[in-house]
């Protein structure tokens, strides 16, 4: 326990500042049910992810059940311990506050899930159902911040970002079909009129409604409106459609190449055809990836497809922070398949090889299988280079 507490915990707002000073967006990995475990967080951290989320943890069960605490939240005792946000599902202020108090010694901050669209979560008035409960969300955030303050943590927003005891409180949301409702929600949750008096350290916005399927592109226009309205008062992360850094559905001065600062919907080419022009979103502070980073943990390191080295890094991390074998297999099936980048659909293993991998029954067989396949591909590549 002392080893954990001795590790330096960096405040998320300091990470936002570092990214801005480096003239780039903050890079984060999303809370993914089952998948955002420690070994995966360590892997994406090795490949440029600045801030990681745990899977959503149910605050009520976490408070009452030692088994839930042991299984849902894992940290490294020897490092690396990536900067981590613990996300909770909750609908009672005191439950969120108590759960946050339990994890505060080991994490950079806590986050309230107001975006999960799954029916079970919404039926329990959690996740996206909270988008209709803005006063309750505000009360959960302020109660949690006050509890952390009483426990001795520094929750004074920007003024405490350099403190070793500084902790953040944030919210992840979706949008409404009527964007005015989303703006009412954000106004209520942020609270104070200025950056120094807000209730949350930062916001994550997933610009889809509760009913919008993930196959439908995000609403970039909604994102532009919300960031231009609130981006000066609170740092904002985008969640959704972050598949590759060079093909985002918008432009930003923190992306390369720099944008043209136009919001026109179309730009003419030399012929009669037109190509879409991307909205510029200069007040967006960072990106959050889920499906794409699951398939390619090296996404933020500039890779359009998962490299073998990331597979090896993941397996090394699993050896130190074990996962259930079936979960390890699922991670590898995602990493060895074609990724989410439209520009690169290469795969480390073909469909037949991935099917064969899924029949491995233990870690020894799995590692032997991957070593054999990689060596075969290396040999074929060398033979091809010689023939060329």
From TrEMBL:
GO terms for molecular function: flavin adenine dinucleotide binding; tRNA dihydrouridine synthase activity. The keyword Kinase does not apply. Residues 30-246 form the DUS-like FMN-binding domain. It catalyses: a 5,6-dihydrouridine in mRNA + NADP(+) = a uridine in mRNA + NADPH + H(+); a 5,6-dihydrouridine in mRNA + NAD(+) = a uridine in mRNA + NADH + H(+). FMN binds at residues 31-33, 87, 172, 206, 290-291. Keywords: Flavoprotein, FMN, mRNA processing, Nucleotide-binding, Oxidoreductase, tRNA processing. Pfam families: Dus. Its cofactor is FMN. One of its GO terms (biological process) is mRNA processing. The active site is at residue 116. Its EC number is 1.3.1.-. Signal peptide: none annotated. The keyword Transmembrane helix does not apply. Belongs to the dus family. Catalyzes the synthesis of dihydrouridine, a modified base found in the D-loop of most tRNAs. Specifically modifies U47 in cytoplasmic tRNAs. Catalyzes the synthesis of dihydrouridine in some mRNAs, thereby affecting their translation. This is tRNA-dihydrouridine synthase.
